[in-house]
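New here. Invent one.

***
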Amino acid sequence: MKNWLTQAVAGLAAVTMLASCEKDETRVTVQPGDSPALAASTAVAGVLTSANAAKPIVKYTFPAFTSTTSGPAVAMPMQYELQVAKTGTNFAAPTTIAVDTVGRKTLTIGDLNTALIKAGLTPDVEGTVDVRLRTVYAANSASLYSNVTTIKATPYSRELYLFGSAFALASAPYIQERDGLAQQYEGYVYFPQAGATVKLSNTQTSSGTVFGTDATNRVVSGGTNDITFRQKGMYRVRLNLATGALDTVHTVWGLVGSATTNSGAGWDASKRMTYNDTTKMWTFTGNIPGAGSNNQFKFRANDAWAINLGLTKKATDAADLLEQDGDNINLSSPGTYTVSLDLNTPNAYKYTIK
């Protein structure tokens, strides 16, 4: 049996369902009721901070969608989502937030902050967004929209974008506030040429706050001096924005561990990986002979232990995520492998093995 929906009347939201089984057809017409009304627990969220990202800040509630149906009962693929847009844009390019529980959606400070930044609000500047509920009750039906609510808040930026001689601001790479460490940022950035100079911005638009260095080489808001990266290649960039302390380390990555022992490496020497300009990842392809108890390895930079990545120790994280000083990675058997290291997303470094 096949089910499908067709629009019944142009300009109206009534939907007709035709259910066919061999040569028989049953016609079902769905006439929607009013769009659900949206209510918000607050219209003023205040100054948001990353330290409180997990705390609830606003609860949106609405009644379930209702309709009148003629004919047999038919399950409708209901979908609700919140749409968020900068006030005054008339939802021209809204940010969407899925609603997974009918009748309510609670946003944490982190959820709201992400939506505000995506909507185009400037970090550290108070702004207002419009929020409405979009309801879709059939694949070929027009969407239903609720009333519009507003919420005012001052968002923060978890990202600082590096722009300058190597990168335009609109496409700049970024470092990100480290999970659980307010105002402490980290990321890996690949510079395609030597001598690159950059400043940092808390947004990818010209309205953001720009950071450079001062006479004491501290990174400060409005600092006039550029930051220079003298070598071509990948740097680990760490910044404590509270103190202005900047730490940059040029990195070349390798595999290290008992799984590589029979190939002249092991826990004392790394097997060199190569940076791939196309995939933007570090890769190694070759024989890894370790087996049994000799089947473990990690990633480390510059053939030293100061910067090393192993499996995440957090039970809630995905299995392929890595962290500094993480656990060893196990191979099930010896063989020829391609091992890739992806450092493109701060707070979500990961690897693959094929």
